[in-house]
Amino acid sequence: EDKVVQSPLSLVVHEGDTVTLNCSYEVTNFRSLLWYKQEKKAPTFLFMLTSSGIEKKSGRLSSILDKKELFSILNITATQTGDSAIYLCAVFQGAQKLVFGQGTRLTINP
Amino acid sequence: KAGVTQTPRYLIKTRGQQVTLSCSPISGHRSVSWYQQTPGQGLQFLFEYFSETQRNKGNFPGRFSGRQFSNSRSEMNVSTLELGDSALYLCASSSVQGENTEAFFGQGTRLTVV
Question: What confidence category does residue A51 fall into, taking pLDDT thresholds of 50, 70 and 90?
Fold first, then answer.
């Protein structure tokens, strides 16, 4: 059965801390792995990863994929209260279907 | 470039009724997929359309159906609504270019069945 597993499910840190969110997957016909941030409604696209070992960066956020070990991590440095959200990892299966993990609820306390 | 547009944003229906949700993808995107999000089950795939053809369907009962028009706009229909159909319904728009497969979501339709 195709599955995407995220850990931890919940994380509470102080402003300024660095966090690492994990995503492992077992999905047939892998096409790409995507990270999203969801605050109130729509998931907002963060990164798309297709190749192993190539880090994607956007400001304080970065992500990397390991296709041999079937996992990805999302790093957030110098966290701010505005980073509080649910972070979703999803794998595109055959360009037709996204298989989502349960999400990590990140809370940043001031 | 406009994003993914879903209408309506909120709906309240009673059990047994039917509902139609609409999704307009990003201009140029031909793939539209639908997802149901609930607190207990997370985001679950409903179906995907490309060039007016359903290419993939998730594990949902036949009460859930959809279609796509020639301009790539898509509609999703749920008949004989049940309380358990209350959820956030999200539409995603994709443009597949080689290995690059990204998906962008609309704001969603919050359906409440009473």
Answer: confident
pLDDT digits (tens, 9 = 90+) for B38-61: 988 899 999 999 999 999 999 999
CA dist B42 → A49, A87, B36, B93 (Å): 22, 12, 8, 19
Residues from chain A that touch B44, judged by Cβ atoms under 8 A, are 100
- By DSSP bridging, strand A104-109 and strand A85-93 are antiparallel
Predicted pLDDT at B100: 64
**Shortest CA distance to B46 belongs to which of B63, B29, B69?**
B63
A contact residues 29-58, partner B, Cβ 8 Å cutoff: 31-32, 34, 36, 41-45, 48, 50
Strand partners of residue B7 = B22
Q: How far apart are CA B97 and CA B76, in angstroms?
A: 26
Q: Quick one: tokens of A22?
A: 């994990």
Is the pLDDT at A10 greater than 90? The verdict is yes
Residue B76 Cα, gap to closest chain A Cα (Å): 16
